Amino acid sequence: MTEPHQLRTGGDRGYLRIATEEAFATREQVDVFLRMIKDGTADKGMVSLWGFYGSNPSERATQILHRLLDLGDERIADMDRTGIDKAILALTSPGVQPMLDHAEAKAIAARANDRLAEACQKYPARFIGMGTLATQDPEWSAHEVHRCARELGFKGVQINSHTQGEYLDDPKYDPIFRALVEEGQPLYIHPATPPDSMITPMLEAGLDGAIFGFGVETGMHLLRLITIGIFDKYPDLQIMVGHMGEALPYWLYRLDYMHQAGVRSKRYARMKPLNKTIAEYMRSNVLITNSGVAWEPAIKFCQQVVGEDRVMYAMDYPYEYEASEVQALDAMDMTPALKKKFFQTNAERWFKL
Ligand code: 1DF
Ligand code: MN
To answer: Which domain holds residue 197?
Structure first.
């Protein structure tokens, strides 16, 4: 065994490390989650996820909440310790999307975006912002996409999967996609806990969160968008997903085979012929990060399936904060040129840094 190497920022290994799925929270966001849990308006997923991170006394919950709320020197020190040069930050899941009072949701989203913009101005070499949206109001959200891009200097938008059980393939969300395409910015679809219509058998087994439910729900969300023809309507749109593509690359052969069988037999009215195969959309419009999956075989598989230019590094701080994972990824058996794409230049290209 070789000694694990020191982690430093600054490119001593031939690349900068840009972490692309990094989370923060605001106190007022978490307080609304806790209020909703208390007054019975939270869905089962919020009770499970934010009942834990918002009030559980375990070391994991208290430390993660503390780290989420900091956008200052402590976060920078944590990045320094793990050799992370730049963090692409977004308001943590589920953002404000479950909030029933839409005026409150919009106010909290706008203040979170302002707060993130301030932090990015304070640490311009270290922090990059993605905007958060109150998707309950698609027209407002489209405006916020423009404000984030033009006034706040953000480089993309993160939506935390479903909004109160509704998915982005509903035509009412079209203004959000139009705004993203006008700005030339990517959409990051980040997981959320599954809606009540889907969560029950996962919850009873403790599988509703990041262990499994997140990936199932988010992978399905991206599939809904692909199969409704979002990339035929918006050929320049780029959608990012974390967690090694939420398992879709591994399913890809079967997805395409069964999708084509479904289209040919006209079994579902919604399932229309598309311009390309699902695999082709994955190689032209989908970007993948390895958040939560510091695993060389999965990274190489995704590079092979979607292309070497489409797989990017993410840590998922503070939910995942492991120096050993960075060391393992540095040590991957991969050409220096490809490692630089993975850690640095693919993010620079797709976020237009
Ligand atoms: C968890 C994981 C929570 C991820 C997250 O946001 C999150 C977790 C609330 O471990 O509970 O973003 N993640 O992306 O893997
Ligand atoms: Mn995450």
So the answer is: 18-350
* Cross-strand partners of 23: 90
Q: Is 221 exposed, middle or buried (0-12, 13-18, 19+ CB in 10 A)?
A: buried
Gap from CA of 92 to ligand 2 centroid (Å): 7
Percent of the chain with pLDDT over 70: 99
- Residue range 136-180, pLDDT digits in tens: 999 999 999 999 999 999 999 999 999 999 999 999 999 999 999
Residue 127 tokens, joined: 């922090």
In a domain, 7, yes or no: no
Q: Does residue 10 sit within a domain? A: no
Domain presence at residue 30: yes
Question: Which residue in 78, 85, 208, 316 is the catalytic one?
Answer: 316
Compute the distance between CA of residue 226 and CA of residue 276 in angstroms, rounded to an integer. 10
Mean pLDDT of 286-295: 98
Q: Is the CB of 217 under 6 A from ligand 1?
A: no
Examine the pLDDT at 1 and tell me if it is beyond 70: no
Which ligand lies nearest to the CA atom of residue 246 in the structure? 1
Domain count, the chain: 1
- Ligand 1 pocket, residue 218 CB under 6 Å: no
Q: Give the CATH number of the domain where residue 178 resides.
A: 3.20.20.140
> What is the 43 CA–ligand 2 centroid distance (Å)?
19
Q: Say if 111 falls within a structural domain.
A: yes
69 close to 27: Cβ distance less than 8 angstroms: yes
pLDDT of residue 122 exceeding 60, the answer is yes
Decide whether any atom of ligand 1 lies within 6 Å of the 23 Cβ: yes
- For residue 294, the model assigns a pLDDT of 98
316 tagged catalytic: yes
